[in-house]
Amino acid sequence: MTAMKKIEENLRKEAKRLLEGGEVSVVLAYGRGYDENHPMPFAARTVEDVDSLVFNEYCTFNLARYLPKYPPKTKIAVAVKAADSRAVVQLIQEEKVRREDLVILGIPVTGMKDQKTGEVIDNKTTCNMANPVLYDILLGDEIHGFKGGSPYDVLAELEGMDHDARMAFWKKEFEKCIRCFACRKACPMCYCDPCFMDASRPRWADKSPTPDGHLMYHLTRFYHLAGRCIDCGECSRACPVDIPLYLFHKKLAKECEDMFQQAAGMKIEDKPAMVNYGNQDSDEMLK
Amino acid sequence: MSRIGVFVCHCGLNIAKTVRVSELAEFARTLPDVVVAEDYKFMCSTPGQELIQNDIRKHNLDRVIVAACSPLMHERTFRKVIENAGLNQYLLSIVNVREQDSWVTEDEDVATTKAKALINGAVFRARLLQPLVSRFIDVNPDVMVVGGGIAGIQAALELADTGKKVYLVERSPTIGGHMAQFDKTFPTLDCSACILTPKMDAVLQSSNIELLTYCEVEEVKGFVGNFDIKIRQKARYVDHDKCNACLACTEKCPGRGVSEWDEGLVKRKAIYIPFPQAVPQKPVIDRENCTFFKKGKCRLCEKVCEQEAIDFEQKDTFREVKVGAVILATGYDLMDTKPLIQYGYGKLPGVHHALELERLFNSAGPTSGKVVMRDGKTEPQSIAILHCIGSRDKNNHEYCSRVCCMYSLKFAHLLKEKTHGDVYQLYIDMRAPGKGYEEFYNRLVEEDVKFIRGKAARVTDKTDNPDHAGKLIVEVEDTLTSQFVTIPVDMVVLSPAMKPRQDAKDMARLFNLSTDKYGFFMERHPKLAPLSTMTDGVFIAGACQSPKDIPDSVSQGTGAAAEALTIVVKDKMELEAATAIVNSAACCGCQNCVRVCPYGAPMFNYEKNVSEINEALCKGCGLCAASCPASAIITRHFTNDQVMAEMEGLMEF
Fold first, then answer.
1. CB contact under 8 A, A275 and B509
2. Residues B379, B381, B387, B393: what is their CA dihedral angle, to the nearest 10 degrees?
């Protein structure tokens, strides 16, 4: 039996047990889509739903996205891969969910594939960790000795550009944007309701796709995610016009790590870096 | 339609030298809604104020813009001016054309254009200004003094004398601070303990002072007039209510710790009072060195204590104290000279630092006042005092520590008195600017002390000269004769830099103070508000602000007491009306505001999943509004609409 199949089996087993015992009222995991290669997020609420749960290398979605949507104190089991678990940790830090309301089903896995392209997802677009950082039940065997390269390797080219070239690069990329807000929709940390883009007084940016509005929307969203982005790569996979959003997020995450020695979503005890002050914090930006 | 008046101040030539002020007023007159624009030499002077008030009445103005200095200087003045002319004080907008314009450039064209842009922005914003009503709150009449050195003691006593209740918080087991370690004080050479201990005793006797020794400030909430301070009472393991200070326990104790008061020159017991005149005169147990805590048995002190005051089960306790104002007098640390290996401190036994020598002079010190080498018996025949160790030194502390010249002279005098040795002073410059200081220097010059102008380069025990064997060799360039000299001596005394307390930054963070580049607490204004800080209601006194001698520390303690009194003497105080409010419909529940607020004003309502701001705590700093990703927080007087309008006005240029 392949590792994926074993995870699927364990997922069904644990989901069944949790729902039967009434420990949780919903299990957030993956269900069948229109074919094998296109599974979808699925919320199992009854024991019967459990048969619909699947897991394979195309189950890329970050299910932490759905956690803040449930009413407070709902008992939820959530299936998480490594980056997804970091999103859960970050949400706990930000008090959007409570640890005691969650049963975290950890999925140790590598070699997930992009539904659109079929390519293996690696350190280019994600944090590329193999094991969840936080879980209650591990659905597969912990992975040892996995080396997939630094998540920041991909930044080399961008960091080599001068200011003007970088601005030109991003302007060109943003030109493609059709303002469908799929990135915002896919992002587990984009839970603001309403989003600043939906505000009308003041109206921060044009809601229709205009070049200035693109800059305002994307740059502000990047900034709002500074120190919070857990590098799951969902925004970039969700983007229908393939804007490499992960590049900007990674750059900010790297800066944040350098300045505050803290990566997003690694420890429950951490405080969100950008709204927390410590005497040892870097003063570099003031100089 | 608004009726706006624009008033441009020349500030003598401060502004008028670089900004073409009449052109600026002329420009303002062309702006829509501006009814009148004038320029005047000193807008803050009485004629200037009258000019504004007359124009308000004559032109029926409903908004006033003053282009002058920073609002920190005169916003209050002009608010009063327009209020007295019948306008709500929040219908004023200050445009800073001095600090942010005329002082930062010499180019007239650039400065004038920038001033125009700033005024244009201010006009855009002024149209949207709203009248606001100030709030009044009750003021807590009590004061907290943090730090029980001479500055803190002075402040506490002065306040207690006015009838105010004072909490004096001290982290060590006794008050007294560094002054308690000294033998004599310069330049009068009066006995330090003789002038300090009566004050310490007065603290103990005062019914208005609640003495909190062995305590630390743990958390500070609230704001001027209403601070809410959490104090940690560290476990003493001795019940001070039961203890009758018989000190039988300290006699029997087998534990040994390093005596802080004697600068580590001798050991003290594990249950101890720091020194004979300590206040309070009751012991504490030093957990680190207590045999019971280390090995699990002993409890000798418990056995001899007839009062049953020993309590090994004691834990740190916490209490909340409410006060209206706070004085910080947390003092200084002496620089550790070990890293300056060229002077050999810690390696060469003959090298002492200044506080160690103070202890040798002191009759209550480890040698009962005899100046001897570390062996405890040999009297040094020659002593070199090295000034500016770590001070006036770009590699360490650039500033002058101010007291070393004078105490080095005092040392020289006392060494002459107590030993038969030669005394050398190795100084860069002799700094004696104080009452009686220069005279003291002149007196020492006549006392056969050898002054060598030059900073010591090295202290070593290695020499080729057999006459110098066993001596310490001080190498120095005598800059008066331009000669390199080596001086063989028995004892070297280093005068190290006074530096900020190791945890000064934590303290600054607790009380929201800024620190200067060295880490000393920053005063609000170096000349005109030397005891105030940027946090209203928090004052500083003594060496926590910069190196100081006793007279200066005492004056500052008294001054800070007066400053604190200006707050707590009132029953009520006016608060800024410019506070923040949450538009709960737009709140996304991220709690950024809760985390960034230095005053603890926003609270998260878990029922409604939105933040709410307690306006009594809000100071209107705007941090929450800036960190709100959903722009759900509105800071009154700086609403999003107002700020956006101002930016629009600025960007027209």
1. no
2. -90
**A140-177 tens-digit pLDDT:** 999 998 988 899 999 999 999 999 999 999 999 999 99
Choosing from B81, B106, B134, the residue where a domain stops is: B134
pLDDT digits (tens, 9 = 90+) for A97-115: 999 999 999 999 999 999 9
Domain tally for chain B?
Answer: 5
Domain that holds residue A160: 153-281
Last residue of a domain, one of B568, B599, B623: B568
Quickly state the pLDDT bin for B123 (edges 50, 70, 90).
Answer: very high
Is B629 in contact with A96 (Cβ distance < 8 A)? no
H-state helical runs in chain A: 3-20, 82-93, 156-160, 163-175, 182-186, 211-224, 234-238, 245-260
Residue B377 belongs to domain spanning: 333-499
How far is B510 from chain A, CA to nearest CA, in Å?
11
Global confidence as pTM: 0.77
A73 touches chain B (CB under 8 A): no
Would you state the torsion angle of the CA atoms of residues B507, B512, B513, B517, taken in this order, to the nearest 10 degrees? 80
Which among B125, B606, B631 is the top mutation candidate for probing chain A, defined by the most A β-carbons within 10 Å of its own β-carbon? B631
In angstroms, what separates the C-alpha of A190 from chain B's closest C-alpha? 10
Q: What is the CA radius of gyration of chain B?
A: 31
At B348 the three-state DSSP class reads: coil
Residue A267 lies in a domain: yes
The CA distance from A52 to A63, in Å, is 16
Cβ B312 vs Cβ B270: under 8 Å: no
Are A91 and A171 in the same domain?
A: no
Shortest Cα distance, chain B CAs vs residue A94, angstroms: 7
Residues B210, B288: one domain?
A: no
In this structure, are A131 and A160 located in the same domain?
no
Q: How confident is the model over B434-439, as a mean pLDDT?
A: 95
Query: Does any domain span residue A146?
Result: no
Mutation site for B-interface testing, chosen from A192, A225, A280 by largest number of B Cβ within 10 Å: A192
